[in-house]
């Protein structure tokens, strides 16, 4: 189910959510993952500033974002306040790399 929700087709993701029993644990988990996917994709695209602060995201979203985000605000926030030491380290490392890339382009 999560593979469909994380896929590239938003219409298919909505259909997958409609199949689940309303109010069920599975539906709530799937809806949370769908929200997480939107946040992580925005961070990867460099446009996560309009969403909720990255350090309040679910552990899954934080783990994914620290590896894919291009938004330095997200990476800095996860680097200082991420839920685990691994997330903080990876986000800090990725932010450092993004800054080096930006400096090299100048």
Please provide a written account of the structure.
The protein has 106 residues and is an all-alpha fold. It has helices at residues 2-5, 10-19, 25-44, 59-68, 72-81, 85-105. α3 packs parallel to α4, α4 runs parallel beside α6 and α5 (72-81) runs antiparallel to α6 (85-105). The chain is elongated.
Topology:
Layout: H1 2-5, H2 10-19, H3 25-44, H4 59-68, H5 72-81, H6 85-105
TL;DR of this structure?
This protein has 106 residues and is mainly α. It has helices at 2-5, 10-19, 25-44, 59-68, 72-81, 85-105.
Q: Approximately how much helix is present in the residues?
A: over 70%
Q: Report the order of strands and helices.
A: HHHHHH
Radius of gyration: 15 Å
Coarse structural class: mainly alpha
Low-pLDDT runs of 5+ residues are: none
Query: Beta-strand percentage?
Result: under 5%
- What is the count of DSSP helices, taking H or I runs of 4+ residues? 6
Largest sheet: none
Query: Got a strand count?
Result: 0
Question: What's the number of domains?
Answer: 1
Distance between the termini: 44 Å
**What number is the mean pLDDT?**
85
Task: Name the shape in a single word.
Answer: elongated
